[in-house]
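thought: fold this chain, then report.
action: predict
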Amino acid sequence: MDRVVLLDRQGRKWLVLLSEATVSVPGLGVLKAEKLQSSMGNVLRIGGEPFYVLRPSARDLSETLERKAQVVTAKDAAALLYYADVKPGDRIIEGGAGSGGLTIMLAHAVGAEGHVLSYDVRDDFLAVARENVRRAGYENRVEFRVGDVREAIEGPADAVVIDIVDPWNAVESSHGALRSCGHLASYSPNMEQVKETVLQMQRFPFVETRTIEILERELEVREQGVRPSFAALGHTGYLTVGRKVLERA
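observation:
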């Protein structure tokens, strides 16, 4: 199914699935799919207002999803993909699907030959995540299950990614599911969670265990000069990552 993103002058975005000859877009009305496809990369006027018609990027897919639970921010998701070495063809296990924002980023990274198995204990979260993944076009790369990663995980996995309230209780099951040299990544909003998780990881053969916080500051570029944005550098979360080995040195 083809998709486009509509971008207005205020930076607002609409992800439009071109599933029929005409599509209904909330707030914009009924539009012709053929017209949207032929306008890719150009400006299309809708109701007298100009909209850019764009091919959806991973960023667009993340920014236009329906949110039932808080999502991992783009800066943190990018760091997680790097430090957990998520790459095309990988099999990834996700603990805590939430709204599916990180699920989409994982599915984008593993590619058509990869697979993401996403667990959540809540049916309502899974329903939202499943629909967001479908709208992104990655339903063939993702499997959702009602389950608790603290109890059992179906391996093997190249990486396990955890975003739950007590990630330390999922360290043992994650270690068992990981392939040798696979990565465990945990995303937590507070330091006490980090402490408990790292202490638990130290009880298993993990190496290169580290915790980082990503701070992002935008630059304002004008003809008069360039300066950092005065927007507050808000805390989002801490990322803890370790690599599984089979024995200690």
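thought: worth noting. The longest strand covers residues 178-188.
final: tokens above.
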